[in-house]
């Protein structure tokens, strides 16, 4: 692993490579930002993504690039699509949940385990979630106050499993639970589920309210993704649609992908755009915007921004 220091006062945060699918994790006094990596050279004119990257900062401006922290080379049973991850700490170990394409076909969720937030991560040797369909992508993980951990995931449906204390297995009796895709939960949207829910869920709790932020499709054909959110008073729903978090018009490329955290008294929405030179739907870049919650916990639409303030 190589480490580089860089300063970034403007979006996109990383300007040396294409990064996407931001997943922030605050640990101690440091914000770790896990991302995917869009390769410069495309294979079959599709997302060409082979590894996961990690960057860290203590002030949002001075960053350490920890390089490649986990890759398809580390996952013997996978052959492509190192897609949107999320990392969490439990009992001193770090768990990186990663969607991948299996050598024998279909998407599944891998888990990398490490002793440090910046890895290196070691694969379990088998998929954690493997339903044999496209839906097993974009895992988001959260440990509730009572110790129960949840792994939500899914495209085009939102599903979850109850993780066991070991974080590398789940309650098989409960199995994979499908969230009802209703307009009350996710608003009227694309033909895929009839709702705006698309993919890229980001699950967390704040002041007793559970949030599900996600990449969303409005009604109609050929739409780019926007970001939206729903809330619930329980970790398993029912979810109530909250509104648009980042508009489709601002994104300008097919995907967007949310990652949210509070850090040093500030609330941040990470997202991605095609804004670096050479940017495209397959050459994306991670950005960040600060926002504030409204008094009732709702979030108003967050504008994309150019500048990043030091904290
Ligand atoms: O980056 C590959 C895929 O595109 C992610 O898994 C989705 O969320 C979308 O960003």
From TrEMBL:
Q: Which residues form the signal peptide?
A: none
For the biological process aspect of GO, one term held by this record is: xylan catabolic process
GO terms assigned for molecular function: hydrolase activity, hydrolyzing O-glycosyl compounds
Q: Which family does it belong to?
A: Belongs to the glycosyl hydrolase 43 family.
Q: Does the keyword Membrane apply?
A: no
Instruction: Provide this UniProt record's keywords sorted from A to Z.
Output: Carbohydrate metabolism, Glycosidase, Hydrolase, Polysaccharide degradation, Xylan degradation
Q: What is this protein called?
A: Glycosyl hydrolases family 43
Lineage of the organism: Bacteria, Bacillati, Bacillota, Clostridia, Lachnospirales
InterPro entries, alphabetized? Glyco_hydro_43, Glyco_hydro_beta-prop_sf, Glycosyl_Hydrlase_43_Enz
Marked site positions, Important for catalytic activity, responsible for pKa modulation of the active site Glu and correct orientation of both the proton donor and substrate: 138
The positions flagged as active site in the entry are 21 (proton acceptor), 199 (proton donor)
């Amino acid at each position: 692993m190589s480490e580089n220091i860089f300063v970034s006062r403007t979006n996109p945060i990383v300007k040396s490579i294409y990064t996407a699918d931001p997943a922030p994790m605050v640990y101690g006094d440091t914000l770790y930002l896990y991302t995917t990596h869009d390769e410069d050279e495309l294979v079959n004119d599709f997302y060409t993504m082979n590894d996961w990257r990690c960057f860290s900062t203590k002030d949002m401006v001075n960053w350490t690039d920890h390089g490649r922290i986990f890759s398809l080379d580390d996952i013997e049973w996978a052959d492509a699509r190192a897609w949107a991850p999320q990392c969490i700490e439990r009992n001193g170990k770090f768990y990186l949940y990663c969607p991948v394409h299996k050598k024998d076909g279909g998407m599944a969720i891998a888990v990398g385990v490490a002793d440090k937030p910046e890895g290196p991560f070691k694969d379990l040797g088998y998929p954690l979630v493997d339903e044999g369909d496209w839906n097993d992508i974009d895992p988001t993980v959260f440990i509730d106050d009572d110790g129960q951990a949840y792994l939500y995931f899914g495209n085009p449906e939102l599903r979850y499993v109850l993780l066991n204390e070991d974080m590398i297995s789940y309650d098989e009796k409960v199995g994979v639970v499908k969230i009802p895709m209703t307009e009350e939960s996710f608003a009227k949207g694309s033909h895929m589920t009839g709702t705006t829910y698309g993919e890229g869920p980001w699950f967390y709790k704040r002041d007793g309210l559970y949030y599900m932020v996600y990449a969303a499709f409005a009604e109609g054909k050929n739409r780019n993704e926007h970001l939206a959110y729903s809330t619930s008073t329980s970790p398993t729903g029912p979810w109530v649609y909250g509104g648009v978090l980042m508009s489709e018009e601002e994104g300008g490329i097919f995907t967007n992908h949310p990652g949210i955290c509070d850090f040093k008294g500030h609330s941040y929405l990470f997202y991605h755009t095609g804004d670096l030179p050479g940017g495209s739907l397959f050459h994306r870049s991670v950005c960040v915007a600060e926002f504030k919650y409204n008094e009732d916990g709702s979030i108003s639409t967050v504008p994309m921004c150019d500048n990043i303030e030091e904290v």
